[in-house]
Amino acid sequence: MDSQPKILTPRVLIISFLFVVVVPFLPLLISRQWDWWQAWVYAILSIVAFVISRALAARRNPGLLAERSRFLRHEDAKPWDKTLAPLVGLGGAAIPLVAGLDARVGGSAGFSLPVEIMALAAILAGYALGSYALIENAYFSGMVRIQTDRGQRVVSSGPYRWVRHPGYAGGLLVYLATPLFLASVWAFVPAVFLTVVLIIRTNLEDKTLQAELDGYRDFAQRVRYRLLPGVW
């Protein structure tokens, strides 16, 4: 009998469809501006980045997607992360939602094309860094927990040579650049809120790992910075 956990449950399929397909298209669906090329690029890039990163991660670390599919169902997840993790997901969805509403009512004046191109480059860099971290780290769970059931150990290769939490660093690049690319000043409100949440989560996760994961304190001494080299 197959003892491998089932990944594609109805719950996972529904959540994946909402966050992977619907959310990236929110700016277009809400604004009804079908000629908004930036929104098309944002949606397609978000979906392609998700699919490619998960496919590569599953190929390298077969148990990772099963681990991530149990989002909010880990009994040993840290209590504070049962609040912070959903806030990260909702905050990420709020950015394109607000951008779509902003475009519909014509609230923001927008940004120049060079600024939008630089923002697009930042989004690409953010997706690349986050995907690199996901592929490199077999323990890249959706919840903060010490994965004793999976034999968790410290990962110090790949982007973890530069910062201790490259997945969060890549996410922050995407979140803060998206309002610029989608020309929405109001979208900075959820982006800034999400930045604060991620900084808090990074700090709490780092303290947890230093206290409970063998070898992490030594790793933290070698890789000094959590999110941004030279800053924090």
How is this structure best described in words?
This protein has helices at 10-22, 26-31, 37-60, 64-69, 81-105, 113-136, 166-181, 188-212, 216-222. The chain has 232 residues and is mainly alpha-helical. It has one domain (10-222): Four Helix Bundle (Hemerythrin (Met), subunit A) (Up-down Bundle), CATH 1.20.120. The longest helix is centred in the middle third of the chain and has 25 residues, at 81-105. It is globular and about 55 Å long. 32% of the residues are buried. The model has no long low-confidence stretch (mean pLDDT 92).
**What is the level 1 CATH name?**
Mainly Alpha
Helix percent band: 55-70%
Order of helices and strands: HHHHHHHHH
Largest sheet geometry: none
Q: Any idea what the CATH architecture is?
A: Up-down Bundle
Radius of gyration: 18 Å
Shape: globular
What is the number of strand segments? 0
User: Structural class, judged by helices and strands?
Assistant: mainly alpha
N/C terminus separation: 48 Å
User: What percent strand?
Assistant: under 5%
Attribute tags:
9 helices; Four Helix Bundle (Hemerythrin (Met), subunit A); 63% helix; 232 residues; mainly alpha; globular
